[in-house]
Amino acid sequence: SGRLGKGSDAVLRSRSALSFGYGNFSIGYIQRYDYEIRASRDAAVLYYRIRNDLPVDQQAPYDVDIDAYSNRRDGIQFGYRLDGANWSLTPKLALYRGLDLIDGRLSGVATAGADNSFSYNASLDYLYRKDVLFERAFKQPEGTGLGLDLIGHWQPHARFDVDAALYDVAGWLWWRRVPGTQAVATSETSDRDDQGRLTVRPTLNGVEF
Question: Do residues 1 and 51 touch, judged by C-beta distance below 8 A?
């Protein structure tokens, strides 16, 4: 609800971990949450104005393109520290369980009318573990994966040392039978009945898989 900036993208990388070590070995619990939204400038402007109850340019088409991705997972992480004369390197391998997934795209054009209503034509194509748009009921898919991190330490001098971490050096996450929806929505579909009366109503047509 603050001032609109120049950017129209949002990216979040979150991780939390709790580990225990014995000698050179370690084991722990890790949780990850990744979130990305890539939006066109028009989509960001339109959302900002609606969210903050600001006037929207009438009869000016807004090209709305939004790519959204989120992934939440947790698992067990194993590590082993390799020691050198003045350095150490710890590879950590995580075995993940998929908890949540959204991967989709919304693309279309929206135009504001004089009565604060919108006309629109849009297409939707997205995959999910939980259907947040249409609340579709189904058996949730299972996700499994792997992830590799590298943790390094180097001490070239008694009073100087360097620590570095490379996350997601390699990683995979597989989902079985991920459901999805492909649909086209329009606000202006009209037809006439036997008496010649015109009816206009929004429609949503698509497939679920």
Answer: yes
Beta bridge partners of 44: none
Give pTM, 2 decimals. 0.77
Residue with tokens 């104005």: 49
Q: How far apart, in whole angstroms, are the C-alpha atoms of residue 29 and residue 177?
A: 27
Q: Which helix (H) or strand (E) holds 139?
A: none
Q: How far is CA 161 from CA 88, 152, 164, 197, in A?
A: 11, 11, 10, 81
pLDDT tens-place string over residues 67-106: 999 999 999 999 999 999 999 999 999 999 999 999 999 9
Residue 143 C-alpha from the chain's centroid? 16
CA quadruple 118, 119, 123, 124: dihedral, nearest 10? 20
Determine contact, residues 98/73, Cβ cutoff 8 Å: yes
d(CA 40, CA 154): 44
